[in-house]
Here is the input.
Amino acid sequence: MNGSIIAHLALKDWRLNRLLIVLTVAVGLVALLLAQFGGLALVLGGIWFFVALCVLGSMLPASTIVNERKKQTLAFIMSLPVSSIQYTIAKMLSIWALFLVPWLTLLIFALVLIANGHVVPHGSVPMLLMLAMLPLIAFCLMFSTALVGESEGWLIAASIVCNSSYWLGWFLLIRIPSLAANLKAPVAVWNAPAITVLCAELGLIALITGLTLFFQSRKRDFI
Amino acid sequence: MTDLALEMSGVSKKYRYFTLDKVDLKLPRGQIMGLIGANGAGKSTTIRILMGLVHQDAGEVRVLGHSMPAEQVAAKWDIGFASEDMRLYDAMTLGWHMNFIRSIYSSWDASYAQLLLKRFGLRADHKIKGLSHGQRVKSALLLVLARKPKLLVLDEPTTGLDPIARHEILRELTEVMANEDRSVLFSSHNTQDVEQISDHITFIDRGRVIDSMDKEAYLDRWRRLRLEVPLGIDLPALPGVIGVHQRGRLAVATANAFVPDLANAYESTGARVQCVENMTLEEIFVANVAHSREEVEV
Amino acid sequence: MPPTFTLSQTDKRPMYLQIMEQIKQRVAAGDWVKGQAIPSIRQLAVDLQVSVITVKRAYYELERAGIIVTHHGKGSCIAASPRSQARLREQELQEHLEQAARIAAQLDMPAEELEDRLHAAGDRLAKNEEELI
Here is the structure.
C-alpha cells in the first residue's frame, strides 16, 4: 500500500509535466545537432544545450513543489493516505526522474555525436561530463530549497545563486591546468583531477540530498 | 474507546498571532458535528490538527481509533477531507481527478460517483480551471463522497455557495447518515446549516471551545424572555440568565440555562412575562460569543 | 420524490415540534392509521434532511404522548390505541384553550368575557354550518 501511494503521486507529477520534458529534450537535441556544424555553431549549440538543462533545473522545482503549495493543491495531496516523508520521497523520485531522463538523454546523445563525429575532440568528454554535472547540482540545490524552504522566496534566492554561479563553475574547471590541457586531445583522458572533480560533484549531490531528508523528517506541520 | 469517531483532549497549538487553547471535543460514531465559529476562531486549525496536517503542541488526538498525527496514514484511508482552501489541479479534468482517487481507494463507488455528477450538475470532461467556485467546491466534495469514507471532515463545505448548491450538498451529507457507522464533522459559519443537520454543536471562539453539546439539549437551554417591568422594580440577577436589556418598561432577558421556573421567578418580582421565545442558532451564537468574550475580559 | 413532510424555516418553533405536529396531523387526518409502520428515525432524518437527534427527540416525545410505539430493533409504528385519534384532538383543543387564556391575560380580559367570546364563536360556527346545509 505504501509503495503504491508513492507510485501514484510520482506518476501524477509525470502526467502534469510531460510537456516541459518533451520541450526540453527537443530543444537540447536541436542544439546538439546545431553544434555538429562546428565553429560558431558549435559554441552556440553547446551553450544552448547547457542552458536548456539549466532552465529545466529551475523550472521543475517551481512547477511541481512551489506551485503545489501556491495553488493550494498540497492540501488535496495531504488528504490522501500519505505521510510527509512519503510525500518527500515521492517528490524526490518523480522530480529527479523528470530531470534525469532528459538530462541523460541529452548527455548520451551528445556523447554519441562526439564519438561518431569529427567536430569535437574526444578529449573534451571528461570536461563535458563535469560541466553537465553543474546543472544537475544546481537542480538538486533548487529542488531541496523548494522542498525544505516551502516558499517561492527561497526558490528564487536559490535560483539566483545557481544561475549566477554557472560561469564560476566553468571558470574554475577551465583553470585547472591538467583538465584544460586535455580538451583538444584525440582520446579522453581520465586523470586524477578529473576523477576527483566528478567525485566531488557527486558527493555534493549526496550531501544536499541527505540534508534535505534530514530537514524534511523534522518538520511537524505540513500545511 | 472505539465508539468515538474522533476525540481531542486538551489540544493546544501556538502560532505567532493566534493560540488554540486546550480544545476538548468528542464525536460518537454515526453522528454529525457542526463546528461553529467566527472567521479566525480556530475552526480550520482544529480541523488540520484532526487530520494530522498540523502537529499539536500539547494534548491527544484520536481519529477512528488512531492516534494523530503518528498514525495519520492509517487514519486517512477512512477519512474524506475537503477544505475551503483546498484546490484541485487546474490543468486536469474532473474525470482525471476521479480516476486518480479511484486508483488509490478501493472503496470508490463508480455508480454513486455518476449519480453525484448528475445531482451536482457536473461533467467529468470539464477542466478544473474552467469551473466556477461553486462547481469546484462540489467537485472536491464529489471526490470525497464517492469513496464513502467512514468519517467526513469538511472545512466550510457550503461557504460561498448559492442556495441550490447548498441544498444539494446538505442533502448528500444527510444521506451519509443513513449508515449509522459513518460520521461527519463539518465547520461552518452558516448557523442555519449547522442547526438543521447537526447532532452535536461545538462553538469555538478565539481559540477556545466555549460550548460543545447535543444540539437539541443545547437549543432547549436557550430562551429569550420578553418582560414588562413596572416602574420602581429592579430585575434581579437570576441564575441561568446571561444578559438583560432594558429600555423603559420593556426588558429582554437572554437565558442560557432556562428552566420553566425562571418565568415564575420573574413574575414573583412583579415583572410580567409577555412571552418566552426559542432562539435560532444564529441568535444563540451571537449572544454566546458576546457573553464569553465579556467573561474572558473580566 | 418529495419528502414525507415539509418543514418551515419561518416557523419559530423548534424543528422537533414541527415534526411532531406533522405526524399528529397525519394521524388525525387518517393518512397514517393505527398499527401502521412509520419510517425509522434515521430514514426520516435522511428524508427530511435534518439531524438524527432531532427526529429522535420528536419520536421520544410522541412515544411519551402515546401516539407512537417503538419496538426495540423493529422500528416504530402508530400506536394501536382506538382512542388515540380522539385523544389527539383533545390535546389540540387543550393547547388552543391554554393559548387563548394566555392571550386574554395579556389583554387583561376578564374570564367571563373570554367565556362569552367562546360562546359567540360556537354560535357563529353553528350558523355557518346551517348555511352550508
Remarks:
- The longest helix of chain B spans residues 281-297.
- Chain B touches chain A through 27 residues (CB under 8 Å).
- Chain B has a mean pLDDT of 91.
- Chain B is about 35% helix and 30% strand.
